[in-house]
Amino acid sequence: MPLLKKREGFQGQKSIVLPRKILSEFSNSNTIASGMYITDIGYYPKAKYHFRQRTHGSDQHILIYCLEGKGKAQVQKNNYALQPGSFIIIPAGCAHSYASAEDDSWTIYWIHFTGSLSKKMVETIKQKLNGYCSRVAFKQKRLDLFDDMYACLERGYGNDNLCYANLCLYHFISSFLYDDQFNLVDKAHADDPVELSISFMQQHIAQPLSLEEIARSVNFSASHYSALFRKKTGFAPIEYFNHLKIQLACQYLHFTELRVKEIADKLGIEDPYYFTRLFTKLMSMSPNQYRSSKQ
């Protein structure tokens, strides 16, 4: 019987692929956070038969953190065994492969990242570890930090979201580099109209909300709300709402076999041709091209 291999398709999995167009604009306009920034982020629980091989490497550096189960990885012909608490850094451009153990499937958190400082960070980690792989003690706050980055990006690609998530990336990676010193300061969450309205968007992602309806959810006039929202995020509210829809569309295309029209329906977009134009404008490829690129 042939060995089963899967790149994705695990119950409970989640991932975000950030639009390269937005990343390009962000890296050109923000010299602080763009030194090292996330391009892809995800979580694969109990990923049985998970396997990935890139003979020419990845365009980005990759961090994989194994929370549970076991797996193996090969980086530049060096073999590593991963178990609970293990992590591995894979430099951009390096041939590699990794796989979950068949008898004890791993649960992994993973991030692809790049930026002007990222190569130096990876070299620092390699030098400190004397290799690419090591182990850290379990700390819930490390997972909380990952969830913080993911949730922030899940709320869209506003300037504040991108800056915060990518500055957190330094903290997250340093938690592996300096495990003994790792300490996360508790943060208090302060509600504001923009954040509340984004939650409203997420709760009504399957509906075709108008600007007036979104503004009304936080008791603002459309004009006042729109100006406030653009000042905080750098985007108009409806454009931002569409970003959230396309983010979810990427997951449907990545993880399901739903047709484009069915995905559009799930996002409250009646016209599949309009949905395709909207998707292509943001992701620089059509929905079908995106799906093909992930196979």
From TrEMBL:
Residues 195-293 form the HTH araC/xylS-type domain. One of its GO terms (molecular function) is DNA-binding transcription factor activity. This is AraC family transcriptional regulator. Keywords: DNA-binding, Transcription, Transcription regulation. PROSITE patterns: HTH_ARAC_FAMILY_1 (PS00041), HTH_ARAC_FAMILY_2 (PS01124). The keyword Nucleotidyltransferase does not apply. SUPFAM superfamilies: Homeodomain-like, Regulatory protein AraC. Transmembrane segments: none annotated. It comes from the Bacteria. CDD domains: cupin_MmsR-like_N. Pfam families: AraC_binding (PF02311), HTH_18 (PF12833).
